[in-house]
User: Fold this.
Amino acid sequence: MKSFDELSLKEIVDEVQDGFILGIPADYSGVPMKFTKELIKKGVKNLKLYCLPLTTIQGDMLIGSGCVSEIEAAAVTLGEFGMAPRFSEAVENGKILIKDSTCPALHAQLQATEKSVPFMPLRGVIGSDIQKHRKDWHVIENPMRSSGVREEPVLLLPAVQLDILVFHAPCSDRNGNIQIGRRRELATLAHASKKVFVTVEKILDIDFFEDELSAATCLPALYVNGISIVKNGAWPCALPGVYSSDNEEIKKYSLAAKTKEGFGEYMRYYL
Amino acid sequence: MNLDIQREELLISQLADLLKNDKHVAVGAASPIPGAAALLAKEEAKFLNKRLRVTILHSNKYNNFTDGARELFDCAAQGRIDTFFLGGVQIDGQANINLVGTGEYPKIKKRFPGSFGSALMYFVVPQIILFREEHSPRTLVKKVDFISAPGVSERGVYRPGGPKYLLTNRALFKFNKNLQKFSLFKINEKETVKNLIKLTGFDFDVDNKISQMSNPNTNRINILRNKIAPMVSEFYPEFANKIWGV
Assistant:
């Protein structure tokens, strides 16, 4: 028996159900754009995007296409190409719920799930309006006698479990281990997700665990439910170490998506 | 060589001056000018036989981290980052910053990207430099509409870090933590204090050592244009192309 499941992109897309909490990788850690395109085509609804810690064109497209009801993020932006227009408009019109957060809190909530503990403490944040509006966050006094400052207020964040995570990676080995390099936040996301699917540029006929270097930079197959070979799967986003982002295309999107009509036209061409 | 100093080059030079005592400078999202300043300061530190580490979050090359995106925050919380840069849609007189939007939250009028990591970084990095190019009553306000991260904290809150400076394209302010107030420290040669009072939405003090922003010298401009510009194009290609045509 093969040591992992090789799937079609459609099979991965079919795993995503309406209302799921979907893990979203940042623009520097392998955005699964081909998958996103198919997801939009399928017409999935009411997704809750959990961004670690931000999203760019992927989130903006999903929101503009009406697939999203809620998003938890530290930022939604097109980076050098300005604001994420579909996101901004959806928030301004109250079409989606935004759970405003901050990067380390988004990491910590998944780290709690990694450890299977109900919450994770974090310093900072206290006194901000982010904290004020997050009714699911709590401040306690440090109960420890031997560490930190006695009675110091400390923020507690709930553990968050994702229903599904999909990201794009350069390659897997013959056993289904995924090369993630230094993008360890992908491991955090995977550890905190019920199901994990990965699109890859290629599957190599080697074993990452035979070499210390490649063993240390992979996500073990035990966390992965299925892999699909998708060439150029992050385009127009970058796949770090393999190809850079197609800035012309992202610029084109950023201009088109400024209006609802322009976005619609762009998506007809893109899909 | 054309020594007409561009506005961005002056700002990069001003920021680089503030990094001279640092050992580790980190640069976050959407920050081409701070990124260029950090790399310039690193290059200049070499001439003084000093080691300055620079971590640019959006670069693969100029990046010291291997433990994923959370390492920036863990590293900062451990006190291993001396300077970090933050911006704001609005910045107010108590150095509160707003990266979320204008209007009354959550029914905001104009939505911006979001708070990024500011709500931790502002608390733990000893020297936070606020940087916002636009100096106007709509960016520098009396009170921000949303506090992404507060300028000062109540007693008892863990807060080794906080705001030290605010740089705009017209002026450099120092932040006085005890008075909870900015003080005007340097001004652009084309500016007057009178005009800055008009363009600033909050009250500020004027430092008794106030001076003009000095232009970068030929040596610094050479390093910036010949050495730093191509480095910046790795992580901010649009910016590097616009300013230096590289």
